[in-house]
């Protein structure tokens, strides 16, 4: 039996949200891993690994070269937002095909991306960088209200807040600056036009400069003024895909991306798509898993295929729908109860997964004190024939699940 091609995966992420990615790549490829801790759940899916400080560029390059000396690598891939630029740098050092470091930096920096969208005629949002509160105030005079204040280079909607009046700016700027301060790439803040309309993402695969939009994800958001994502649905027959696909492809092209998987976020303003950002990796919150449940298309394998110079198979094999809903408490506090009706779960085949990610006694913090990493207690996934059925089932399951917190004194 001929040896399978070897793919280098940089940082697999956590098992709960990213385990399916490594599993699906390992079904078709041998995998060597660069990771920050000794592998545990990853062991069945890898043939070799190196543990390294992933935030030390020199150490990452050295460990990558050592793995490349032991194995004939066919490609390199990451699905982690924070490691897009280091992975591109390592690919260049190892002579492996990948988007350039400069392209990945443009994807990571929202200010750079906005400039490129404008240059290439991609409908986006007006945006101005603000280093100080005074600059932010002047920016709102140009952009108007409502406005969005956000970190220039972060993710997960952390530090992103909407303001409707000038007097809200000081607190909002402090909130966005706190989020931006966590970035290793750009600690700046942006003041942007608020795009008023439903938010969606387009899941794309680009190979040799040609982008295929394989699915559209409809999103649910938590209460304003924050932008916490509370759920997603994917429908293989969603008619919206045909409308948003050209704009998503144009955004990918504007950034100079030639290969890989992209998670392109946009809003529909008066029914027309306007770009929020392009994430040059598989979407988080298990969106790639939803795409597979709904369409049969395997995004992690497509990412590995493209990294190895192979044309990915993007033929749908299913025509269903799937959805995920995050479990948040009503108020911040200590988690005192988490429960699902076991009889309901046991007799409900469309309830594909219920996953707790926090234990009794853990503190759950909602914005503005917390973020998605501190607020979520877990999630659940359902399937159905279409979006309407999935949404109904998500609501039905919600009635059988309890998350209770006790407010801190």
Could you characterize the architecture of this molecule?
With 409 residues, the chain is α+β, with helices and mostly antiparallel strands. The protein folds into four domains: 6-98, Rossmann fold (3-Layer(aba) Sandwich); 126-193, Dna Ligase, domain 1 (2-Layer Sandwich), CATH 3.30.1490; 195-316, 2-Layer Sandwich (D-amino Acid Aminotransferase, Chain A, domain 1), CATH 3.30.470; 320-409, D-amino Acid Aminotransferase, Chain A, domain 1 (2-Layer Sandwich). It is built from 13 helices and 19 strands. The chain has helices spanning 15-26, 57-70, 84-94, 101-108, 110-119, 133-143, 169-180, 240-254, 287-295, 299-307, 342-346, 372-375, 387-398; strands at residues 6-10, 30-35, 48-51, 73-77, 127-130, 147-151, 161-163, 189-193, 199-207, 210-221, 229-235, 260-269, 272-279, 321-327, 333-340, 351-356, 363-364, 378-384, 401-406. It has an eight-stranded antiparallel β-sheet. The protein has a four-stranded parallel β-sheet with strand order 3-2-1-4, with helices on both faces. It has a four-stranded antiparallel β-sheet with strand order 5-8-6-7, sandwiched between helices. A hairpin with a 2-residue loop joins strand 12 (260-269) and strand 13. The longest helix has 15 residues, at 240-254.
């Amino acid at each position: 039996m001929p040896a399978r091609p070897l793919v280098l995966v940089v940082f697999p992420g956590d098992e709960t949200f990213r385990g399916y990615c490594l599993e699906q790549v390992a079904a078709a490829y041998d995998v060597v891993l660069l990771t920050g801790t000794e592998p545990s759940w990853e062991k069945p899916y890898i043939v070799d690994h190196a543990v390294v400080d992933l935030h030390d560029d020199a150490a990452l390059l050295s460990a990558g070269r050592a793995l490349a000396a032991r194995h004939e690598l066919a490609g390199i891939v990451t699905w982690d937002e924070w490691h897009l630029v280091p992975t591109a740098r390592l690919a260049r050092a190892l002579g492996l095909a990948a988007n350039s470091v400069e392209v990945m930096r443009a994807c990571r920096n929202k200010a750079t991306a906005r400039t490129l969208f404008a240059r290439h005629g991609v409908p986006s949002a007006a945006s101005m960088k603000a280093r100080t509160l005074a600059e932010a105030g002047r920016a709102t005079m140009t952009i108007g209200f409502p406005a969005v204040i956000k970190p220039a280079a972060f993710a997960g909607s952390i530090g992103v807040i909407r303001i409707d009046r000038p007097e809200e700016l000081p607190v909002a700027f402090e909130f966005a600056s706190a989020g931006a301060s966590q970035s290793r790439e750009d600690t700046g803040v942006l003041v942007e036009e608020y795009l008023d309309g439903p938010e969606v993402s387009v899941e794309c695969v680009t190979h040799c400069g040609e982008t295929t939009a394989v699915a559209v994800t409809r999103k649910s958001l938590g209460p304003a003024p924050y932008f916490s994502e509370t759920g997603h649905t994917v429908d293989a027959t969603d008619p919206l895909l045909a409308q948003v696909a050209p704009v998503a492809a144009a955004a990918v092209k504007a950034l100079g991306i030639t290969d890989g998987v992209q998670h392109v976020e946009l809003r529909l303003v008066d029914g027309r798509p306007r770009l929020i950002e392009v994430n040059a990796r598989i979407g988080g919150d298990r969106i790639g898993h939803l795409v597979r449940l709904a369409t049969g298309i395997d995004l992690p394998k497509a990412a590995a295929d493209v990294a190895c110079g192979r044309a990915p198979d993007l033929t749908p094999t299913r025509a269903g729908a799937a959805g995920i809903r995050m479990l948040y408490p009503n108020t911040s506090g200590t988690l005192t109860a988490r429960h699902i009706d076991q009889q309901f779960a046991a007799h409900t085949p469309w309830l594909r997964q219920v996953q707790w990610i926090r234990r009794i006694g853990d503190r759950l913090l909602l914005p503005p004190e917390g973020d998605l990493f501190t607020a979520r207690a877990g999630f659940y996934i359902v399937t159905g024939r279409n979006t309407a059925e999935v949404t109904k089932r998500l609501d039905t399951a919600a009635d059988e699940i309890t998350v209770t917190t006790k407010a801190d004194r």
